[in-house]
C-alpha cells in the first residue's frame, strides 16, 4: 500500500505538502502512509481513488507488481484469487462453469487473479507453490480445442449432447490431475461470447486469439494435485486497490469489444459458426 501511495503522488508530480493539501489531510499523515506506519482509512482511500480518477493516473501496474512473490528456490510460483479466502485444505471446489470446470485455479501472473476478485467485498490473494511431480498434466494450446473445451465447461454445448463433438470435450480431461491452458481473460470475454452466440466465426476467433498475449492458468482438478500446492503468502487487498483494479478490468473489456468488432468485420465471411461446428458441418 505504501508503494502505491508513493506512486500516486509521484505520478501527480507533487511533494508531500501539495499532496496532503489536495487530499485535505496533513503532510504528517502522508509521511506515515508512505512509510507504512499507518494505513489510510476507508474515507481517505476513497479520496485517493477520486484523486486518481480526476487526474487520469494509471497506477495499477504498481498494485500488480507489488503482489509478485520472489522465490529464491526457483520453484513454480503461481497466484490465486479467492472471494473469501482459503479455509482448510486446498481442494478442487470452484464452480463447475469456470474455464476448465471444477478445480483450484492459479495464474502465472498476478494480474488475472487480481481482476477476477476485484468486485468482491473481502477477497483474498495468495502466492502459492505447485509441485508437479508425478502429476498427469493436460496442456491445452491456443486454438479451437481451447475454445471448445471452455464452451463445454461453460455449458454452451448442451444442445449437442450425445454428438461426437460433445463427447470429445466432455472426456478430454478424464484421468488428468492438472490442466494448463490459456486464460479467457477480460480481453477475450466478448470474443468468446460472440463465438458462442453465433456472431463470430472460428476463423475470426482464432485471429482474436493470435492478436492477444493471453496469460496461462494452472488448474488442479484432482485431490492429488491440490495436495501438492502450498500457500506461500497471503496479500491484503485494500479498498483503493480493488477500486483501481475494477476500473482497469472494465477498460480491458471495452478494448475486447473494440477488437472483436474490428476482426468480425474483417473475417465475417470466413470459417464456421459455433452451431455449425456442433452439427459437424
What does this structure look like?
The protein is an alpha+beta fold and 281 residues long. The chain folds into two domains: 2-57, Orthogonal Bundle (434 Repressor (Amino-terminal Domain)), CATH 1.10.260; 73-278, no CATH class. 47% of the residues lie in helices and 14% in strands. The protein has 13 helices and seven strands. The strands form two sheets. It has a four-stranded mixed sheet. Helix 2 (16-23) packs across helix 3 (27-34), helix 9 runs antiparallel to helix 10 (202-211) and helix 9 (186-196) crosses helix 12. The N and C termini lie far apart (54 Å).
User: Residue ranges: pLDDT <50 for 5 or more in a row?
Assistant: none
What is the straight-line distance between the termini? 54 Å
Count the domains.
Answer: 2
How would you name the oligomeric state of the polypeptide chains in this document? single chain
Tell me how many strands there are: 7
Give the percentage of residues in beta strands: 5-15%
Classify the secondary structure makeup into a structural class.
Answer: alpha+beta
How confident is the prediction overall: mean pLDDT? 88
H and E string:
HHHHHEEHEEHHEHHEHEHH
| Main sheet properties | 4 strands, mixed
The helix content is: 40-55%
Q: Indicate the overall shape.
A: globular
Amino acid at each position: 500500500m505504501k508503494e502505491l501511495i508513493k506512486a500516486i503522488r509521484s505520478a501527480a508530480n507533487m511533494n508531500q505538502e501539495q499532496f496532503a493539501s489536495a487530499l485535505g489531510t496533513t503532510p504528517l499523515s502522508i509521511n506515515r502512509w508512505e512509510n507504512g506506519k499507518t494505513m489510510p482509512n476507508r474515507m481517505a482511500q476513497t479520496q485517493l481513488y477520486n484523486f486518481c480518477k480526476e487526474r487520469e493516473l494509471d497506477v495499477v501496474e504498481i498494485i500488480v507488481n507489488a503482489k509478485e512473490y520472489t522465490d529464491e528456490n526457483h520453484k513454480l510460483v503461481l497466484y490465486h484469487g479467492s472471494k473469501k479466502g482459503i479455509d482448510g485444505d486446498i481442494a478442487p471446489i470452484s464452480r463447475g462453469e469456470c474455464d476448465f470446470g471444477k478445480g483450484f485455479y492459479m495464474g502465472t501472473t498476478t494480474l488475472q487473479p487480481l481482476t477476477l476478485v476485484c468486485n468482491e467485498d473481502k477477497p483474498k490473494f495468495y502466492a502459492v507453490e505447485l509441485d508437479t511431480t508425478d502429476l498427469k498434466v493436460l496442456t491445452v494450446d491456443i486454438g479451437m480445442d481451447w475454445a471448445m473445451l471452455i464452451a463445454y465447461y461453460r455449458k454452451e454445448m448442451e444442445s449437442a449432447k450425445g454428438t461426437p463433438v460433445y463427447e470429445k470435450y466432455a472426456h478430454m480431461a478424464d484421468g488428468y490431475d492438472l490442466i494448463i491452458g490459456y486464460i479467457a481473460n477480460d480481453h477475450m470475454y466478448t470474443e468468446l461470447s460472440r463465438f458462442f452466440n453465433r456472431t463470430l466465426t472460428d476463423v475470426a476467433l482464432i485471429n482474436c486469439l493470435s492478436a492477444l498475449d493471453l496469460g496461462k492458468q494452472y488448474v488442479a482438478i484432482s485431490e492429488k494435485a491440490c495436495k501438492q500446492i502450498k500457500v506461500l503468502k497471503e496479500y491484503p487487498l485494500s479498498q483503493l486497490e480493488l477500486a483501481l483494479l475494477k476500473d482497469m478490468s472494465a477498460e480491458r473489456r471495452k478494448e475486447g469489444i473494440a477488437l472483436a468488432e474490428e476482426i468480425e468485420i474483417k473475417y465475417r465471411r470466413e470459417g464456421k459458426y459455433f452451431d455449425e461446428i456442433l452439427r459437424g458441418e
